[in-house]
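Lab notes, practical 5.
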Amino acid sequence: MRHKHVFALYSAVCLLVLAGCRPDVQPPTESSPEEVYRQWLALADAPVDRIDFSAAVMLGEQLAAADRMDLVLDALGSPEANPKVKVLAVVTLTPLVRPEMESRLAELTAAANEATTRACAVKLLGFIDSDTARARLRELMGDAEHRTRVTATLMLARARDAEALDALPALWADPETGTSERIELVWSLPDEASERFAPIYKEAALDLELDPEVRIRAVTALGKIGDADAAEILDRCSVDDPVPAMREMARAALAALHARTASSEENAPETGEE
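Output from the prediction step:
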């Protein structure tokens, strides 16, 4: 369970990194790559909720400039490394992943590796735009290990892979899918397919375990769907949700839904017997 908590924190941090919340490049340093790596590794000594991920990314920039990202990749793949080191590795690598890392990352997704290593390597492999990387992720969608399977599916879904998108409803309904994975799943849904994933958005809007930002995305999508169930959920959220921003967004989505419905009715062709 502790490994799952650490990996959930990693997922949240990576969402911030992907959204652009990352530090500027660290100025050049006189320290050797080995010394920089020791500083980087020491960051994992902190409690998991106090790890300085910004410092990790800046030190990673220094290692990348010295062409020594192999040190971080080795930490990710080490059977002896604790989960915090592996999370630190993948957060560091997320903005720095390069095509030449594909072979090493693919090796780390093999079943012989530890589960956290595999899931983190799958995440990083998903940032590489190549046919072979995508083919490996498709294989891993059927993996026996839950986190590996889920991560592969979500990374492909972000790339709008048809097979992965088809798998999302079943993944959402799977009792083994955790809250952090549901959050990532909602962010993986394509904006242009609100009606296709309406059941997911309807449940997400009412799930108070999800982040408010995720539920706001759900109510925004429901405002585009326009059916009676969506309107009812938006009405409930606009009154009962404990987050003010969520209530406000639900009211706006509900108003947009009603306006669009009224416009459709006004523009509908009249029918009647001659």
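Observations recorded by the TA: The chain has 15 helices and no strands. Confidence is low (pLDDT under 50) at residues 1-10, 15-28.
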